Amino acid sequence: MNALRNYALVTGAYWAFTLTDGALRMLVLLHFHQLGFTPTELATLFLLYESMGVVTNFLGGWIGSRFGLRVTLIAGLGVQIFALSMLSATDPAWTIAWSVTYVMLAQALAGVAKDLTKMSSKSAVKLVASGESQLFRWVAMLTGSKNALKGVGFFLGGVLLGSLGFAAALWAMAAMLVAVLSLVLMAMNADLGRAKKKPRASELFSNSRDINYLSAARIFLFAARDVWFVVGVPVYLYDQAGWRFDAVAGFMALWVIGYGGVQALVPKILPNLDGPGSAARAATVWGAMLLLLPAALAILMDPGLIGQPAWQLELSLIWVLIAGLLVFGVVFAVNSAVHSYLIVAYSDADKVALNVGFYYMANALGRLMGTFLSGVLFQWGGLGLTLWTSAGLVLLATVLTLPLNRTPADPQRRLP
Q1: Residues 117, 76: contact at Cβ < 8 Å?
Q2: Alpha carbon 314 to its chain's center
Q3: Three-state SS for 195?
Q4: d(CA 76, CA 78)
């Protein structure tokens, strides 16, 4: 019961944090686009956010194993509160160069905060779930609910920007996190996630063949999403489709909410998984399905293939993009949920924080790659170039799932 209470606290805090994380991304993207930042400059604002995730996950798993998940969770919430306060001090009168530098530094702190809280929550699942069946369901539920709440955060960011303004919105989110941090400080036990044997610094790198291949696949999987999603889609909808801030934020929110909902339903979509072996096979099959989508969407988004008047052409392209995003979101959600299950399934309880930290270091590296390419490629060649790049990245991710262990699981551990 004590472990479940601790897990509930970690998960609740992570959900609250996720709302602010999603809102912050939309606030920064739309606010600074309105101030005249180019797509490349917008992508630059998020580079330290993603790169600090690489460092944080690399060290966070070791810190969590050595000192407990309470330490990493409290640190994550505290750093996010500071980052929100720091961003509220930005001034439109600053030069572009100083604005980019200052926001990058604040975003770097937000990146540290995000990955400390995420690692804490994802690691806690392994420590309280009993058996593969419950583990798969809980991982899918946590991952799905997190992304659904991040989508709500996107919408919240657009609404807060339009109603309160940039600085007041940040202060409101910081106040909510102060309340959450106070609850964690009062109620959470310090022992959750602390390894019985103190991990050495040399254990920061995984020595598991499956975890290494899975982590490499994760890099390219998330780069394939973010290469067109971070900058390209919202800027395209705002500039080309003429959507308002709240409309862009609302659509992005609904997409992420739907994506999270699909992740939570993956145990029902894939009811015959019997453990890591069949999950590895599913990762390859669904990766191959995902590969077809950005390539097909890039072809359909080519104006030369649609012989219509200009005003009808723009309308057609927008609907093609929306439909493609929805299908991509479903298939990507299944891939992501299967990968998330595999990392905890491949880990033993005493090293779960280390392995999850290493794995999400790869996740952050993929997001960093995708974020940078999203701004640069969109500015160079538009949405079509980002889509073709996405297809190539999915191909790499799928190939890297082929070496994963496909040995059938023990029938006693079969999932319902």
Answers
A1: yes
A2: 30
A3: coil
A4: 6
Distance from C-alpha of 193 to C-alpha of 144, rounded to nearest angstrom: 22
Q: Determine contact, residues 17/79, Cβ cutoff 8 Å.
A: no
* Percent of the chain surpassing pLDDT 70: 78
Is 394 contained in some domain? yes
Contact 353, 123 (CB under 8 A): yes
Q: What is the CATH number of the domain that holds 118?
A: 1.20.1250.20
pLDDT reading at 260 higher than 70: yes
Q: Which two tokens stand for residue 220?
A: 């390219």
Q: Which of 310, 331, 205, 186 is nearest to 258 (CA)?
A: 331
Six token digits for residue 354: 């280390």
pLDDT value of position 301: 78
Look-up of token digits 């798969």: 136
Q: Tell whether the model's pLDDT for residue 405 goes beyond 90.
A: no
| Mean pLDDT of the 223-249 span | 82
Max distance between CA atoms of the chain, in angstroms, equals: 69
- Structure-token match 């600085």, residue found: 167
**Short-list 116, 114, 115, 86, CA closest to 102:** 86
**Is residue 260 in a domain?**
yes
* Residue 198 included in any domain: no
**Does 199 fall in a domain?**
no
> How many folded domains does the chain comprise?
1
3-state secondary structure of 196: coil
Q: Answer whether 356's CB lies under 8 Å from 348's CB.
A: no
Give the residue-averaged pLDDT of 74-103: 86
Which residues, including other chains, have CB under 8 Å from residue 3's CB and lie 6 or more apart? 127, 128, 192
Does the pTM surpass 0.85? The reply is: no
Token representation of residue 199 = 């991990």
Q: In this structure, are residues 249 and 26 in contact, taking their beta carbons and an 8 Å threshold?
A: yes
Domain assignment of residue 162, given as a range: 2-193+206-413
| CB proximity list for 228: less than 8 A, separation 6 or greater | 294, 374, 378, 383, 386, 387, 389, 390
